[in-house]
């Protein structure tokens, strides 16, 4: 038996977050991944508040989960209604899950002002509902809403609600920092009092991130003897989100010696899976799993990391499925490039002419305003070009863009022409778009597709523009960063020029070029 | 004297973060905002590692900061070199700042493996450098790199390095969790030992967010008697970022009763300003300042919030300049606009029709992708236009831009035509430039100059482009931020459109328009 269990509520509390919506299929897929990863409880939804959640539990019953137990979420019976007659409690039983989690009010203020009933009736609601669910063979988790705020107002009232749940037979009482306003020192102190007062029922913790302390508060509760952590993958949830399990899990396992999952290496992949399923961008700076979580930029740091990885890495990145990233920047020396080349499968020797030539070219481009930090694709092309393992897929002859804005009702008119050669064959194509860059991108693809039909797979995922040195204003250099993808992977490319159109052109062309180079190399291999 | 001072390193450690680059003008503007907000120390850069930072300190000296003290950052002298002869230490003094912060090694492993010198020489390097800087009249902050890792390996060695700094006269020793791998319970315990061992020198804390505990660790240090918190706005910084001051400040002030700034209401605006200046998107779920930090989605929550805001809000959102998102009350968000109008000398009455109309227009534009945080000039024009105290200086009839790139040696050809009316007089002008936006800016000025010769004084100081929603790539909306100046003051204006040329046009026109409006109002006054 684990000393701390993981209770995931991504599918329920997570979906309270803005921009985090899941279809039933999404929820089923996430549930399977959570199970495979080793989460103990999966809260699937609230049958009483959402008819879709009833369907979910019907489908989820067929999933054949290996380890995790499904939980249906709901509230205690209403005031002044027998628990057997409460429709919402009936739906909880009909969800037919091994676990039922109910929440009740632990803050006296909430009982009188929001629920508008008496303290005694509130306790009876908690006790009756727990007992009723236990009588129907469920494992019962009691979520004490607003527990910490309630405790700070009136410890006696708050503890009495937990006692009511324990008397009703709850298997675990969970202390909720519903508003996310409690500090770790308070959590620790209050948890210790709970443990003393209600020693025979394990307690859990449910925190929110409103003070950027969601993870710290969960850890504090575990330190005080907590036996269950509720949270979500990537911290999705209402307002600022729930306790981020993606950070809590490695902390427990790697820092506190509490084994909660059989294998941490799937952590980054699980995190990205949930982002992708919910169509949210990855947060680059996310602890443990973010793209830059083990990225080193300063030349001094890079140097030290090579001498001794522990210098700037608190854990070995591979333990959570992540990897060290060396950012090639103005602050860096040759070591960054050697590592990058190694990752590409084209190892360079330190101090070799090739390595020197590549570094010189990188520095030269950086002086022109290039930055390869988020444009590994352009760096890959630069290395390939320098190594003469590169064949140019097409030759640009000329392009032209035109944009005309009328103030008399007309839509703006925007078009691009592209003239290219592939070998000896010329193509001269015009297309239009929402803006000059969009028009140019469309014209280029239209011109290339008959030579390289595979570029159909590539699309532009992101497009960012910045001015490299603002001093000369519009005459200054523009840096365009493009992210392209083919459904399986994505890559960044960069272009710099005195004007945004040419910079965009360079980045877009490199994005397509790299795709074609990789296809060719894969075909040769 | 404050019991805890705020030390901001957004301009130095922040810029170690991926995608967080600042020009010198950006750095100067941020420094002014930090000063106005009430931050105590502003670490501006590392003169020894970056020639741009030397220039920064020259310019920053002219800023006339009201409260904050500027700090130059660097390292101790090198091993086996007299401190007077160390070039990097010389550059620190030449930066001519009231404060100098130096870092040294507190982890024995780092001394032997990375620095490759002896423990004794390392302590001498720390002591000598502190003493030398004190002799030159500087306030000296000593950053003990890897302090917690070092302490865990060898408490005696780690404490001896702090003692060396104290012996050298350091005004504050700062315990750095350089790798971000330490837990709050460890921070608390170690800080208490530091306080006991080195009672006469105040200690500070510098944390990183690698375990999502950057804020919690800083708070733990303050609980243990810490007197300074180092961090960055929005938590920018290497890897997962630094301690997020944007969360720490309201926690100290609202939760712990430690006053650190005179007025918290500018917090959200400061946070968004730094995002906009660095051309980064706002993180919606950011505690305190995020767009969804006080957003209520669950129907039950909305209901409860209406009955009792404290139900799901740990603080009053207005205290940090944020607002509740569901209950868009007629009065919400108005205060910023009232303050701005007051500053313009056109005071509005709270709740008046004029104030409501202006607020409605701001919300409408924000929905279209506008952001006024770094574009006070556009907000000023919006208010003037709504108040009907506005005379349009010219009427656009049409503009056209053309860009042609040849690969056969030719320079790209880029021109713009502008057709405008001033009163009944038409002007139809063509000009060329480095890019389409530059050409357009030149053509517009050329067209206006015979009507408004004073625009000779105005120039474009900065030009930034970002894509408001990256999902549709080049077809998404573009936001252009322009900073114009007349040598005495500078002002920001913003334009949004599906294409960068029109967005630029809007922002450039507003920049000139505002200048003309101000001239006219000054002439009338």
Automatic annotation (TrEMBL), chains A, B:
Residues 4-268 form the Pyruvate carboxyltransferase domain. Gene3D superfamilies: 1.10.238.260, 3.30.160.270, Aldolase class I. It holds the Pfam family HMGL-like. GO terms for biological process: isoleucine biosynthetic process; L-leucine biosynthetic process. InterPro entries: 2-isopropylmalate_synth_dimer, AIPM/Hcit_synth_CS, Aldolase_TIM, Citramal_synthase, LeuA/HCS_post-cat, LeuA_allosteric_dom_sf, PYR_CT. The keyword ATP-binding does not apply. SUPFAM superfamilies: 2-isopropylmalate synthase LeuA, allosteric (dimerisation) domain, Aldolase. Its EC number is 2.3.3.21. Pathway: Amino-acid biosynthesis; L-isoleucine biosynthesis; 2-oxobutanoate from pyruvate: step 1/3. Belongs to the alpha-IPM synthase/homocitrate synthase family. PANTHER family: (R)-CITRAMALATE SYNTHASE (PTHR43538:SF1), ALPHA-IPM SYNTHASE/HOMOCITRATE SYNTHASE (PTHR43538). It is an enzyme of class 2 (transferase). It catalyses: pyruvate + acetyl-CoA + H2O = (3R)-citramalate + CoA + H(+). The keyword Nuclease does not apply. It comes from Haloferula rosea. One of its GO terms (molecular function) is (R)-citramalate synthase activity. This is Citramalate synthase. Keywords: Amino-acid biosynthesis, Branched-chain amino acid biosynthesis, Isoleucine biosynthesis, Transferase. It comes from the Bacteria.
